[in-house]
Amino acid sequence: MLLSKIFWLTLLARPLQTSTASLLRSVSADSPDAGREQVRLSTGWRFWRSENIPDGIIYERRSDASNESLLELKPWILPMGNAFINDPEDWHDQPDSNLDIDIEYTRSGFDDSGWENVTIPHDWAIRLPFLTGSRPVIPTSMGNLPVHGVGWYRKQLDLSAEDARKKIYLDVDGAMAYPMVWVNGQLAGGWPFGYNSFRVDITPHIKTGESNILAIRAENPAGRFSRWYPGAGLYRNVWLTKVSPVHVAHWGTFISSREVSDASAVVDLSVTVENRAESNAEVLVLTEVFEFNTQSQNIGRSVAKFEPAKLEISATDGKASFNGSVTIRGPHLWGPPPAHQPNLYAAVTRVYQGKRLVDEYETKFGIRSLEFHPDNGLLVNGQKVYLQGVNQHHDLGPLGAAFNMRAARRQLEMLRDLGANAIRMSHNPPAPELLELTDEMGFLVINEIFDSWEESKTPLDYSLIFQDWREPDLRAFIRRDRNHPSVIVWSYGNEVKEQSSDDERAAEIAIYLRNICHAEDPTRPTSTSMHFSSPNMTLPTTQDVISLNYQGEGMRYGPAYEHITGGNHKTPQYQAYHDAFPGKLIMGSEVASSLSTRGAFLFPVTPYNSAPVNDSYGGNSKTREISAYELYTADAGSSADRIFLTQDEKPFVSGGFVWTGWDYLGEPYKYSSLHTGGWGIIDLAGFKKERFWLYQSRWRPDLKLAHIIPHWNWPGREGEVTPVHVFSAADEAELFLNGQSQGRLKKGTEEYRFRWDDVKYEPGELYVQTYKGGSEWAADKVQTTLEAYSLHLSADRGHVASDGDDLVFVTMEVVDAEGKVVPKSNNTAIFSVSGPGEIVATTNGNPGDFTAFTSLERRAFNGLALAIVRSYAGASGELKVRATSEGLQGTEISIEV
Ligand code: GAL
């Protein structure tokens, strides 16, 4: 014991001042001259963008910007990575010469009054019109929005005289891309990879007691640098962190749990404290563990204390670490609902110099055990959890890449309702807040960092900087995210090209990256997703767990796919992998890649349970729609039905991650003039595609659900075969058309839907009654509607917080005189709002609609459109959202601010 028990109690009896609201991470210690303060820098920014390079600088000359006159700043940026490079031999020296450049945008005297006022997070491209012309700089594969160019952000920072005693850091959660930070005209740092978070020490550049100019430059290449919509600019939060010179280091805690049971668990903690002061420091580090209430975001009961630790830390940049363990009796374990609850704890670390509290640092964590079993799959706290996963890209549809907590939560809430319990962050690090949400809501996460290594997938992608940044990027990524209980696997790659070009090289790189992961975090397995490698190749031998994209079901495989030539053909591979690696868990890191356009049904319907989309079956190249019978796929994909069959046949597989949960911007398939590909179970607006109920019936088998497709408005199809399919967990179903039975069906062992493929259309009513185990289960009906008559509005919530961030999602439906949504209606609506707020975006989920997301005039798409509403910061009162449309009755809805 380093301290008497009485002293220990006195110290911890002080009230905790930890405010844990996720978007205001402000922790203040009770010592007047010290303490940690973290302020989000969201308002007061000025922004300007140029399509070309306006300032004569670049991180490194590339093929799209090879102009010799550009000054390369790489030598000044590379040393930022040193803190995340293990071997000092590999550190980058600061250039001897000072950076001899004067950029007017970085100077305090520069007149930015003509620049745009923006709040951060900000995505400069999402509010602009889509690019037109036959060969736009940014193609539809990247979302067709003007992400290219250089964006400058300026903000005044006022620092008090007291701040002179502190270290001042700028924490950037992510900026697209090649961000560089200037303070008062001097370059302070940067970090090229647009998806990683980074910290810049701005202390040497600031003037305390006066105002400072912070200028951040972001740049995206003019050309293909991504396979999807990347976003542009300061699209994640930016923070100012002030700490006493002696403080817990950046991402300086690591907490994990072992020997976990309901009775007890051992929690291991490591804390690194940094001394940036002029003299050596002797500190006392105390860490106490509290229950954490995710509803109130407050700390609860204290449950354990680590042994106090004394550390001696040498002056100017010394670091010292403490490692300790405690046993927690009767822990509230973390795990995914419904079988588990996502309980969290908070470890509060206090650093004392003498009697002075100099830092207080909170780390949220969860106690859980994970077992990756080759035959039983994933066990969480000893119980099997089948991975019902989805892949998610980082964009938030019409809000672009600009992170928004409410929009992200809405995505997860709908995925939870779907029955999903796992998310793969494809293919790059997410916003830090997204992992706070997955912790709180109990999603299992594959956290992924790279889509390419040395070999490029698009000419200007990460491969350009892989060699210099792979180590610092990977270490920074893991240090940031390793305390999240939701993260279960680190993925350091996705379908890398090296798989097919050079298997040995792929394995070498994999081992290199894997070893870094293991060194940073020995508690989690790692992986890279493989769609090409075979069990007899070298790359798979390097894997902790086997992550297969599409190989499990086979690629371009099955009766409907036989005509496809070329490409990566595969027969089903789960068994072959299981045989070759009997000790390794297997998962489908990408499954399905099926496609559909919400509300679009095309005829004829394939007789198979899975078919590649083409103009004969499932597709229409004129309207660019893909049929919502939910049987159609990319050439290498499989329908949900076929995935379910494979999963039932291979129970040793731990589950799969559907490509994708939500539609995302970019990567159209089959038809090129689309701004989204239609891979999602949920469309870009957040409207459910029919697949939603197909997955729900599988993933939530206790839900009394029956869902009929298609809609029943088919004027002109009278007497023609119009198949009717029903999604339900029931085992029998009887369909009636206008009261006439179309037959009672029993679901076969290899069937995941009920199909009446010979129904002849007549207007009226379809009704299905389903049965399970002989008893009535659920029913559904679909009726032919009358003509469009009026608009109807509904909101996801009746109130909105006036914090400047919160959003309300308002759905508009085109309905008939009886209130039924008219399926194919595409009336144009005009949205307006009165009261203290604004409409920030509209959309309808139609992949082929290139109306700017800011437009208040929006066509319904197959009956629906969406308006996203935000209140003004600090406002209160009532917001009225209105929708009108020529020839239809308009409507309005009230939202309380
Ligand atoms: C995979 C790839 C994903 C996406 C998907 C579309 O091969 O990993 O990023 O492109 O195909 O089917």
From TrEMBL:
Keyword Hydrolase: yes
Domain Glycoside hydrolase family: start-end pairs: 791-893
GO biological process, one term: carbohydrate metabolic process
Glycoside hydrolase family 2 catalytic domain segment(s): 376-529
Limits of the Glycoside hydrolase family 2 immunoglobulin-like beta-sandwich domain: 253-368
Alphabetically ordered keywords of this record: Glycosidase, Hydrolase, Signal
Parts forming coiled coils: none
Residues of the signal peptide: 1-21
Domain Glycosyl hydrolases family 2 sugar binding, chain residue ranges per copy: 98-215
Organism expressing this protein natively: Clonostachys chloroleuca
Name used for this protein in its record: Beta-galactosidase
NCBIfam families named in the record: GalB (NF041463)
Single GO MF descriptor: hydrolase activity, hydrolyzing O-glycosyl compounds
InterPro entries the UniProt entry points to: Beta-gal/glucu_dom_sf, DUF4982, Galactose-bd-like_sf, GalB-like, GH, GH2_Domain-Containing, Glyco_hydro2_dom5, Glyco_hydro_2
Similarity comment text for this entry: Belongs to the glycosyl hydrolase 2 family.
Ranges for domain DUF4982: 719-778
